[in-house]
Amino acid sequence: MSLVEQGPPPAADTADVVAALRRVVGGEVDDGTRRRAEYSSDASNYRVPPTVVVFPRDVDDALAVVDTARETGTPLTSRGAGTSVAGNAIGTGIVMDFSRHLSTIDEIDPSAQSARVQPGVVMARLQDAAAPHGLRFGPDPSTWTRCTIGGMIGNNACGSHSLAYGRTVDNVIDLDVIDARGRRFDAASGFHSISGMDAFVSSHMATIRTELGRFGRQVSGYSLEHLLPENGRSLAKALVGTEGTCAVVLGATVRLVAKATAPVLVVLGYPSMIAAADDVPNLLGHRPDSIEGLDARLVNAVRDAKGAGAVSSLPDGAGWLLVEVSGEDARDAAARATRLIAGSAAISHRTIADPVQARPVWRIREDGVGLAGRTAAGKQAWPGFEDAAVPPERLGSYLRDMDELFDQHGLSGMPYGHFGDGCIHVRLDIPLEKDGSALRAFMTDAARLVAGHGGSLSGEHGDGRARSELLPLMYSPAAIEAFEGFKRLFDPDDLFNPGVIVHPASVDADLRRPQALPLLRADGMAFAHDGGDFTQAVHRCVGIGKCRADNTAAGGFMCPSYQATTDEKDSTRGRARVLQEMLNGGVVEDGWASEEVHDALDLCLSCKACASDCPAGVDMAAYKSESLHRRYRGRLRPITHYVLGWLPRWARLASPFAPLVNAVLKVPGVSRLALWAGGMDTRRSIPAFARRSFRASQRRLRRRPPTEKRVLLWTDSFSDSFSPEIPTAAIDVLADAGITAVLPETAQCCGLTWISTGQLTGARRRLSALVDAFHPAVAAGVPIVGLEPSCTAVLRSDLLEILPNDPRARDVAQSTFTLAEVLTGRTPVRPDADWQPPTLGGTEVLVQPHCHQHAVMGFTADAELLERMGATVTELAGCCGLAGNFGMERGHYDVSVAVAENALLPALRDKTERTVFLADGFSCRTQADQLADTPGIHLAQLISGAHAPRTKDRP
To answer: What is the structure's pLDDT at 565?
Structure first.
């Protein structure tokens, strides 16, 4: 039988397709090279730049896109959050992104326990909407904070609790779809309306009954078992998991389930991951809600990345099962947990009934997605063999064979997964730098292994480009023919997501990594963790898209620009994709000087949040700095690089004349003219210089008798010129704690503003001078105390990147601490044993941690100190929006304010008059002052009792 019943229309010229789309689509139609670069990949190994990206504003727009694709013969790929790890969400023609606008929850029906949603609804939003009714959507993949319902339907996503709630297919009631023939229908009642469907099922019934639906995680291929009469002839369920190859989902009605009553988490420890797997069939008899497996390799990665405290909740062992049980009430759940433990073969266990205490344990599992992107040896690990599944009773023997297969191919990874479902996640250090030959060899052997254990190549992520070619190793020719016949009913011309499942692309075709050549360090950042290779550093981004999620509820700061604009170009992932395309010279052709790179990085605040919040360790602030360094090396720079990038230099020159400078800037129009001439937004104001800098006034400081305990108090450029009261307060606080603050003989700058504007040669000069000045004290055992978080972070992190070959730099980095770290005893020099911070009982403190502190030093010590002081603390998560030079620059004001509206400004509006606003960062205090007329104080001032900052003296 011919694949195409009647020939497709000839493919139209690209310009004609784009023009046709713009005539009929109200949403954005973008065929620009930067946009195509952003959408050239998803979370997979593959790179397929689209012709055009469309953002439909409503269902009519989506219908118009489908009609245009049909009329012009242009391939069409539907996309949600782009977190598909198998290459399911990329394509050569039109990519239609539903996540931007089609993201409305149309209805929550508590009585029917259902919801009607548009395909771009993020799962986390659906959970939030259902929660007040005691309901939730059952499936919960690790990407739940950003994945869309449409994407979950496309892949038949599952998650950690599929034992209790099933897969996405088990929770779909109806789908509003349109196929490639132009037919729009409700799939729940559409079985008999599809011409040829009855005949198709009858002719393939034996194959469907014997090969499909054999166990719960058999996701590979099409789930045609739902078309059988004994299964209700459900076309809606059969379309789930078709990966956009048969129909475009316009809306969905999904089932909601009651939230578990008093769930209890049982953490079981075993001698190994395989021993844990062997115990799974036994535990399934207790009907748990979830059984997740962790291996020691993954736990060690979490420990290395997040610290020992991140895994301290695990009992002894080298393999663990996270088993969740629930009951009619807390007592019933606890009793079930006790019986499960007694019936297990575990060597250790821990029971956690408090969901708050259980959250860090589940976070280990969730962060595995990104952390497993690097092996224990630091090599890049790739998906592909990402989510194969076998019947749970075969899991132990399968894992033994899997380890042998890894050894045969010389590969390593960190397995984890949904052990209760027999589904294993692992990324492997397959050498993809040159070609895909190693990938093809391994994937072929791995497919045979999975099939030999009666398993499925995909257990929840779909086949995509990674596994579709290998389906004949799992299925018979009759089953493959059935898949082709099913697609032909809806898409005879192979327009919808071609190359996936039916008539698949080669597993080693269109790989992203081999197309990018190494780019070794010149004289910028060292990228030591990536072998000095910028290409390897940028390819840390595997596309899991955590930067698209609102992470503030979990204390995350990434990614403020995306939260402000909800545009892929302003996500960490979108920027990484553009840089990757620049490196391979494909879509982006003009290298560092390209406008695509400039536009992608323009709204990056350089907040460094991704360096800590991204599980893959992407540091976009460093990439931006390196990009600016290379782009402008030996060339004229933007005016702001000289004005704001050299701010410490100008501040030092202006400080002796501060009263005069401030007075001049108060003259009407002068400040506005200065802002305009300096490339800054005229809606901003220039912060007033202190009447006397700290270094100029230190001779007047009250001298205290020296003590044996000394620290080098580093007064950075901002504290010196703008806030001298902060180092003055710090000296008093340290003295009260029995510590003498020694001041550097000369002023030293860390080069922060040079780094953020990509002037790395200038930054290197300043850091070299700083190391020369500070290292003698460090060598004598005197630690450094920083006051400005961003500058302290430079010494703790950027210093090693800019001076990688100076061993003294590491000494300085390891000996630099925050004031809170000193006062909480985290440094070699500790407060007197009887020292206690002042009591602040009844004082409300609103805290804005600095982004760089969050990313590099963390806020734990500060939080501990505030708790000891008895303050009532509200800690904000997220960037303030100023971010040094970013918020001052012309063209950034609106985004800066939008970022501040994420957390800072609402909190400042809601605070009481007695609330103390605590912000150690100069940028954070400036933003609050300029946008909310709220002065802030530093921790040193709070402890010393100076609750009121100096009188504002704004020009």
So the answer is: 97
3-state secondary structure 723-791: CCHHHHHHHHHHHHCCCEEECCCCCCCCCHHHHHCCCHHHHHHHHHHHHHHHHHHHHCCCCEEECCHHH
Q: Report the distance separating Cα 929 and Cα 925, nearest Å.
A: 6
Q: How far is CA 63 from the centre of its chain?
A: 32
Round the CA-based radius of gyration of the chain to a whole number and report it. Answer: 29
What are the φ and ψ backbone dihedral angles of 664, each rounded to 5 degrees? -65, -40
pLDDT of residue 408: 97
Exposure on the CB side of residue 543, measured as CA atoms within 13 A: 29
- CA nearest neighbour of 226 among 262, 269, 186, 188: 188
- How many Å separate Cα 403 from the centre of its chain? 29
Strand, coil or helix: 416:
strand
Short-list 228, 196, 222, 202, CA closest to 479: 222
CB neighbourhood size of 820 (10 A):
23
- Classify residue 422 as left (phi > 0), alpha (psi -120 to 50) or beta: left
How far does CA 854 lie from the centroid of its chain?
Answer: 15
What is the number of alpha carbons within 13 Å of residue 373 lying toward its C-beta? 25
pLDDT, tens digit, for every residue of 733-752? 999 999 999 999 999 999 99
Query: Is the per-residue pLDDT at 318 higher than 60?
Result: yes
| Strand 264-270 versus strand 135-136 pairing type | unpaired
Distance CA 740, CA 735 (A): 6
| Cα 170 from Cα 172, distance rounded (Å) | 6
Alpha-carbon separation of residue 221 from 199, 461, 482, 914, 943 (angstroms): 20, 11, 10, 62, 63
* CA distances for 822 relative to 694, 784, 862, 942, 947, angstroms: 22, 10, 10, 16, 21
Token code pair at residue 482: 């059935």
Q: Vertex 652, ends 646 and 658: CA angle to 5°?
A: 120
Cβ–Cβ under 8 Å, residues 317 and 271: yes
Percentage of the chain surpassing pLDDT 70?
A: 96
Tokens of 725: 């009261």
CA 880 to chain centre: 19
Query: In this predicted structure, which of 353-367, 479-493, 626-640, 741-755 has the lowest mean pLDDT?
Result: 353-367
Helix (H) or strand (E) holding 200: helix 197-211
Rounded Cα–Cα distance for residues 225 and 922 (Å): 62
pLDDT per residue as tens digits for the range 128-158:
999 999 999 999 998 999 999 999 999 999 9
240 vs 565: CA distance, rounded Å = 31
State phi, psi for 177 to the nearest 5 degrees: -135, 165
Q: Which residue type is seen at 922?
A: F
Distance separating alpha carbons of residues 814 and 812, to the nearest angstrom: 6
